[in-house]
């Protein structure tokens, strides 16, 4: 199974005969400020430790996550990006059949399939901002039995939070013993942390939350993800993970990132302001509809009279070296949707100008 991702600047630059640095990448949704200031110093300070294995228990990193979220260290498992956790979760939780709200991150289908888990998709609607309704969830669970339900919060690629009724449904159902287990992907929730469902964890034996440093801390290259879950679930996941999957630099970086209050504030201010500005700029282009979003990316639907997003993508890449994410590969969307990251003001302006020109 071939999963398509944004951010593939290495393959594209080789094809176009340019450097990856020449590409203005809106296809991966990463904090436009990059990693927190001072991180390079922290990493070089750890460089000599590369001659030893990393701490096999990830103690400093787990302590930092525990302190930041005010959650017991027993409730945390860390991995090589949240993707590694996603690959182990079906087996660690003993899930043979799961329900997923789609469209969503393509790796879920591959990860679950590789573990022999049947993953059934429940398609969400544009008018619900691509988040599931309680009626839809209830109907799917009545029709069939699932050991896990997987939701993305905020949704990817729409950026919408779960509706209040769906959140209440998650809270209620994750409290009940027995299945289904509720798995919530919150890798983008740092952009609206107050909405995190982590607040239900202490009352919910059937809830696990997938988190990541990748998006908010501008560090996809470091690979740091973590799971917040009841102690026995986190322990089960930790037992399945390979030793040393979080390297020494990533362990130190993760702990440092959580100490960066000023960077966090700047990021939140910047992304909120630029998201609004970019949404207004895109909406002003005839034939584009921008979905309301709470994270650092925007989903855009194109009028059918316009050329499809895959063609638009190549047009602006060839001309402007700007990369957007066409969404035809997301099951539940089609080639008249694209997604763009929220970046710095001048970069967003370049994107708007390139789209205006191409359309
Ligand atoms: C919704 C969602 N979940 C999880 C991931 C995996 O992120 P990482 O492995 O970098 O933590 C991604 C990456 O694009 C994503 O979009």
Describe this structure in words.
38% of the residues lie in helices and 16% in strands. It has 2 domains: 9-35 and 261-358, Alpha-Beta Complex (Aspartate Aminotransferase, domain 1); 39-257, Aspartate Aminotransferase, domain 2 (3-Layer(aba) Sandwich). Strands 2-8-7-6-5-3-4 form a 7-stranded mixed beta sheet, with helices on both faces. The chain is globular, with a radius of gyration of 20 Å. Helix 10 packs parallel to helix 12. It has 359 residues and is α/β, with parallel strands linked by helices. The structure holds pyridoxal-5'-phosphate.
CATH topology value of the largest domain: Aspartate Aminotransferase, domain 2
Order of helices and strands: HEHHEHEHEHEHEEEHHHEEHEEEH
The total domain count is 2
What overall geometry do the principal axes of the alpha carbons give?
A: globular
DSSP E strands, number: 13
- Residue share in β-strands: 15-25%
A few lines on this structure:
The protein is α/β, with parallel strands linked by helices and 359 residues long.
Question: What descriptors fit this protein?
Answer:
Aspartate Aminotransferase, domain 1; binds pyridoxal-5'-phosphate; four-stranded antiparallel β-sheet; Aspartate Aminotransferase, domain 2; seven-stranded mixed β-sheet; alpha/beta; 16% strand; 38% helix; 359 residues; globular
Compile the SSE list and pairings.
Layout: H1 9-16, E1 24-25, H2 39-45, H3 59-69, E2 76-79, H4 81-92, E3 97-102, H5 107-114, E4 118-123, H6 134-143, E5 148-152, H7 164-175, E6 181-185, E7 207-212, E8 225-228, H8 231-240, H9 248-257, H10 261-283, E9 288-290, E10 297-302, H11 309-320, E11 322-323, E12 325-326, E13 337-341, H12 345-358
Parallel strand pairs: 1-11, 3-4, 3-5, 5-6, 6-7
Antiparallel strand pairs: 2-8, 7-8, 9-10, 10-13, 12-13
The protein binds pyridoxal-5'-phosphate.
